[in-house]
Amino acid sequence: MAVEVVAEGAEEVVAPSPAPEKEVAAADEAVTLASVVSKNASFREESNSLDDLKDGEKKALAELRAKLEEAIVEGKLFDDGKVVEAKKKVEEIATEEKKDSAEKKTEEEETAGEKEDSEKKTAEETAGEKEDAEKKTAAAEKEKDAEEKKEEEAAAEAKKEEAGDGEKAAESSPSPAAVVDKDITLWGVPLLPSKGDDATDVILLKFLRARDFKAGAAFDMLRKTLHWRNSFSIDIGDDELPAELAGACYLDGVDREGHPVCYNALGVFADEAVYRKAVGTEEGKARFLRWRVRAMERHVAGELDFKPGGVASLLQVTDMKNSPGPAKKDLRVAMKQVLDVFQDNYPELVARNILINVPFWYYAFSTLFYPFMTQRTKSKFVIARSSKVTETLLKYIPIEAIPVKYGGLKRDNDTEFTAEDSEVTELIIKANSTESIEVEATEGDTTLTWDLTVLGWDVNYKEEFVPRDEGSYTVIVRKGKKMGSSEEAVRNSFRAGEPGKVVLTVENMTSRKKKVLFRHKAKSACAKKC
Questions:
Q1: What residues does the GOLD domain cover (predicted)?
Q2: Residue 506 near residue 429 (C-beta atoms within 8 A)
Q3: Whole-prediction pTM
Q4: 407-449 pLDDT, tens per residue?
Q5: Under DSSP, is residue 304 helix (H, G, I), strand (E, B) or coil?
């Protein structure tokens, strides 16, 4: 663990090391995370064929199809409950009005009875008193009626305004039927099940798997995704990342199962100016998120096939070499935002997440956000330290499709090897032993070309041309050299003026066996002319 050093004059003051038990706890935490993630190599992507689904999964798919069909046809897909609440409010107001009307009628009947009794009593009184009483009663009743009338008018006006507000709220919320298009699509796939597109079920299965085949939860997730796409304006604009970040995210080749491989290189953020501009501000983070989402959309639209049996997900490789350390929290925040958006709105579109060149500090910091991932998301992570990069990638990507900088044989704009002549051969070299590979030139004026890599290298390597004619001299093509563990693949060529062979010698002086992968081709001058 890091120890802070503070210099004053010519003396150095070293901060006390953390308690041993804390170091052990941190180490145990890192080892635990590594061991959990290391088990994920056994994760296998499920089939999208309906015939391969279990009975419970088929039932969940049927339920989700029914929910989605009803929501789209009845215009409820984007109904967030406001319209229903407004209608409910209007109905409650109408009920209250009926109740008030009934109470008023009862009061009027009681008033009429009291008035009749009063009239009988006043008839027995003197004529003068009767006349005065009638005048006073009439005046009082008139005044009372006027006041009651005003109160009734005010109450009626208030209820009318309240009812109007409720109706206005209902009207102000656009009717879902008017905004939900029955031709609505997601990633180019129709969502209305009754349209009969096979790709619809593939999309729905992705949401179901992300929610453990709970139809209700999957439907809510799908609806939230559609809401998010509308609010994020996902289909508007074409946000471009600055040129200095062009290598931060790119597609390159496919894995063993045909998944397009997307590489994310965090080392570009090592430059302080680039870091500040890209993620150093809230505006920068928002721009970075929008660009990363747009890149994902392009990858999905251009590379994935949602038909049953098609390749419907990507393989993500994130290179943490030279990435900013734990002190640069802005990058962690930006990357977590991207991870959250992808987990919530792009379910099952990433078949696997491989992290390579992972520094030790990552294990400790990853425990902060690791608990917030779903178990399914966790199961797709694979972590490799720098010494295991090529070996790890090779489990999922053929060596000819792995870039040279990661120990593979793939080179940009390669014209030497094509798909037809790039067959790769494997050779195992036992501990403390030597093996030779021969590349034949059956005739003179032939150009021999070869690629070779050793997983983990740490071997002695040399190349030489041995003529068939014993009277000719052996030619050293490449002097013997101790190859370090991080060497890139070797590519070389030799023009043989006479028949013979190039001999590639690999000497393994370690106590572990080594795997060599190589390919070669020969092109004669006659073939070039023809």
A1: 415-522
A2: yes
A3: 0.74
A4: 999 999 999 998 777 799 999 999 999 999 999 999 999 999 9
A5: coil
